[in-house]
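chain below, 299 aa
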Amino acid sequence: MNSVITTHGLSKTFKSHTAVDGLNLHIPQGVVYGFLGPNGSGKSTTMKMLLGLTQPTSGDIEILGQPLTRASRTKLLPSIGSMIEAPPGYGHLTGRENMRIVADMLDLSAAQIDHALATVRLTEQQDKLVRNYSLGMKQRLGIAMALARDPALLILDEPTNGLDPAGIEEIRTLLVHLADRGITIMVSSHLLDEIDKMASVLGILSSGKMIFQGSRDQLFEQSVPDLIIETPDPQAALALGVTASRVPEGIRFSGIDKDQTAQVVHQLAVAGVPIHEVRRVQQSLEDVFMDLTGRGGLL
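prediction:
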C-alpha cells in the first residue's frame, strides 16, 4: 500500500526534554491509523510536526510522497485537514457562519461547505449558534472544517474527548465511513476500546519512542496472555514449585509461551495433579497496551 505519511528518525527536543525520539512512522493510504500512547508520550507533538506547526529537531517527514519543508508546506496543506486539541469555532456565530470563514480563508465554494456539513450531519443545525451546540456537535463542526477542502489526509487529536457514548459512536462511524471513501485518517485517543473498533493500523508511543506499529493481529502477537490451568487441587500444583498464582479456578501463569505451557502441563500430569482445562485469558487492546507501555521495552 502507498504510504501517505512516512517519517525517518523524527525527533523533537525541548531544552533538556526529548518529547519525540527517532520516530519512524508509516501510515498507509486509506486506513484509520490509531495513534496511542500514555499522556506525555509525544503524540500531540508528533502531529504538530506533521502539520508544520512545530519544527523537528532532527529527522525527515514525507507526506503524500513529498518531503515536508517550509517551501513545500504551502502546497501540501490543501491536501491535509486537521483538528488539534480543542475543536475550533466562534460561539457567537452559527455553524454556517463559521464554515464561511473557513471558505473565505481557503477560497472554497458554497457547494464544498454544504458537502462538508452534510458529511458530518450538521445540515439541520447549521443555523444554530455554536455556543448552543453540544460538545459532539462542536467536534463534528471541527471535523467539517477539516473536511471542507476535501483532503486526502485527516489528522485528528482526541476527536472524541469529552463525548458521551452516543457521541463517541457517531464520530467513530463517521471516521470509518471517511476511510472507506479513501481518506487516510490519523487519530489519537486515550479511549482504547474506540480505537480498537475503528483503526486497522496501530502505532503506540511510550516516552517518545515507537514501541509498536502494525495491525491489531500483529500487536496481539507481541503480548503473551496469561494462562489459567483449572484444577481442583491448586495446592498440589503449587507444591511442585511452578511459578504461578492461585485463582478460584486453579492456578494462573504469566508470560509463558506454548513450549513452556506444554512443559508445565506435562509436569502436572506426571505428578498426578488433575487438570480440567487449560486456557489463555482473553485480552483487550487495553490489556496489551498496558502490558507494552508498562514494561517500556522496544519491539
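DSSP finds eleven helices and 15 strands in the chain. Residues 165-180 form the longest helix (16 residues).
thats it, cya
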